[in-house]
Design brief:
By secondary structure, this protein is of the alpha/beta class. It contains 13 helices and seven strands. Helix 2 runs antiparallel to helix 3 (72-79) and helix 8 (230-243) packs parallel to helix 9.
Length: 406
């Protein structure tokens, strides 16, 4: 019983000894750390400690001496002086005035060529190597055992004298004037164009020739042929002008710059008939808007097919379209009248009848018309292709009727 009880007592004693030893070791380590810190503090006193200011002054003096030899940054690293401290102790207040910077154009680059060398390079480029690019001249000079400057410097020298230009002959195009055409009544300005209609097989196309009066939107003539040809266009225009009994020197015919439109046969015909000829600017579809808009109306019709079975099929469908377009289509650009009504002078009477119907509707139910008696859409006074504008972009349409303002 006594043996069993003695073992825990021995264990407690051993634990106590170990704790005592550990505490003594920790104390010794703490004491050593404190001693090291004290030694460090004694070796490098702070600014507030005894001798700290003298040590900092010595550091700064050493840093100044080293800065002249190895540079400011390396000197601060070697002496342990923060750069901010060095700048603070060497700051001049107020800062000395700085000289005005030299303009960039007046600065002299020490690596630049001398005036004589630049003159020599320019002389070589304008005489011996006149037909060579600077890079080619540079390579040829190297092959000859000479080096004067880089290719970029050659370009700079030439650019200073305005000699970096295109030396080859370039094609020049005369300026194209914008056509400005105005019609104040039917048969003053016609536009015509040709569009393609897809045939029964791939690569088969039919050509649809169409004339439209820009004032009334009436179609005086149309034709479908297998090809687009100047002689066909001549016949087509002659028949249309003769059919509508156009007086000499009263009509302008406008078209784009297609081969048929600019053909010699068409030009001779219009000259013989005393009809003024006008053309769009190259690649400017906006100069012929009436024909383009009519082609879109045709091709966006629900009955317009992807392909026509034959040329007779195309003629049949286009015949139905132009009858509808001239006599049944209420066009928004002419007060919702039909083109035939405006072209043949019945639109004014029809507008008066529309006004009577609207007045009766207003009399029956005036509360439904908050803005007073409704009026039918107005008829256009003029129709323009590219109306002239002033400097602010505002249209200037107060000009007498004529074929062109230019």
């Amino acid at each position: 019983m006594s043996t069993t009880c003695s073992e825990p007592a021995t264990s407690d004693a051993s634990t106590s000894d170990a704790s005592t030893a550990a505490g003594a070791g920790a104390a010794a380590a703490t004491s050593a750390a404190a001693t090291s810190a004290a030694a460090a503090g004694a070796a490098h006193p702070g600014p507030g400690a005894a001798g700290g200011d003298e040590f900092a002054a010595v550091q700064l003096a050493a840093c100044d001496e080293l800065a002249e030899l190895i540079g400011r940054v390396q000197a601060c690293l070697a002496t342990g002086v923060p750069r901010s401290s060095w700048y603070r102790h060497n700051r001049v207040s107020p800062a000395p005035p700085r000289p005005a910077p030299t303009p960039h154009a007046e600065r002299v680059q020490p690596r630049a060529l001398s005036p004589a060398e630049r003159a020599r390079v320019r002389e070589l480029l304008n005489t011996t190597y006149l037909d060579d690019a600077p890079a080619t001249a540079w390579a040829k000079l190297l092959d000859a055992g000479e080096y004067h400057c880089s290719v970029s410097t050659m370009y700079r020298i030439l650019r200073e004298h305005g000699e970096v230009i295109e030396r080859r002959r370039q094609a020049t195009h005369p300026p194209r004037s914008k056509p400005e055409l105005m019609a104040a009544e039917p048969n003053q300005v016609w536009t015509w164009d040709v569009t393609k209609l897809a045939g029964p097989a791939r690569g088969v196309w039919f050509s649809l020739y169409v004339i439209i009066d820009i004032f009334s939107r009436y179609t005086p003539g149309w034709m479908i042929a297998h090809t687009e040809d100047g002689d066909l266009a001549r016949r087509f225009l002659r028949e249309s002008i003769t059919k509508h009994r156009i007086d000499p020197d009263t009509l302008t015919v406008h078209a784009d710059r297609g081969s048929a439109m600019k053909s010699k046969s068409v030009a001779e015909l219009l000259s013989d008939l005393h009809v003024t000829r006008s053309h769009s600017r190259p690649k400017t579809s906006n100069d012929n808007p009436y024909s383009e808009a009519q082609f879109k109306t045709l091709k966006y019709r629900p009955v317009f097919p992807d392909r026509f079975d034959s040329i007779e099929h195309a003629r049949q469908l286009c015949g139905e379209f132009f009858r509808w377009y001239n006599h049944d289509h209420r066009h928004s650009g002419i007060g919702l009248h039909t083109p035939a009504s405006v072209h043949f002078g019945t639109a004014t009477e029809i507008r008066q009848l529309r006004g009577t119907v609207l007045a009766q509707a207003y009399t029956a139910h005036p509360e439904r018309f908050v803005h007073g008696t409704p009026q039918p859409p107005k008829l256009p006074d003029t129709a323009w292709i590219n109306p002239p504008t002033d400097d602010t972009g505002k249209e200037e349409t107060d000009v007498p009727p004529g074929h062109s303002t230019k």
